[in-house]
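Late entry, evening session. Most of the bench is empty. Finally got around to the prediction I had been postponing all week. Sequence below, unchanged from the version circulated by S.P.
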Amino acid sequence: MLFAFALAGFGALGLCATTITPVIIEVPSDGRAIVTVRNDRGREVLYQVTVMDWHTVDGVDQYVATQDFIASPPLFTLAPSESQIVRLGFRNPVRQAVEQAYRLVLAEVPRPSDPAREVGVVDFAIQYLLPVFVAPSGHGVKPALRWSMRSEGEALIVRASNPGTTRTALTMVGLSQQPGPHPEADIASKQRVTVLAQAWREWRLPVPANKHGAPWRIVLVLDGSDTPVLVPDVDMWPSSAR
């Protein structure tokens, strides 16, 4: 069986004819939230809901099965154009000082007996991974990323560490040799990345041979913005080039 994964962004997710709102689930102090699922396919679809614990270990996202949440209903069928409200309840009454992160996995379950299946057509088990965040106790500490850079072969490795108690999301991280307070990136990664609280992420940015040893400035774009922001360090050299 083949599997396809859809990582959710802001707004309503309309991919493969399933619409989900919201796609970033903020769990308030009472530990409850709701998600609405709509089947926009032309046939009936069976859905399964599970929740996974989300941690970043050594810069890599890891997902582990958890019983911290109860989802109701965990399994349901939707006819074309039909919607279902899924209720989430947080089982853990102890509020943590650091924001807790999870992924809600909404899977379209293929059924061999589906009369709409065509002979010779491969079914895909589509799974949507929606971020779920449980607010920390108190007001939390606003994320203030700490940046560093090092050389590794023909690339520069940019690291963002988040010592705060809540996550921050970036839609671009890059390097620039251009002047000004809002320079465009000469080299960039434009994948949306969430840096969880008390975790770090890295970007590997290949550098042209004629640019090695030159000073670079780190630029980024915060999720929800289109304007490049310069990391406060005016000029940064790779650590091995100092």
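Two things to note before I forget:
The chain has no helices and 20 strands.
The two ends are 51 Å apart (CA to CA).
Will write this up properly tomorrow.
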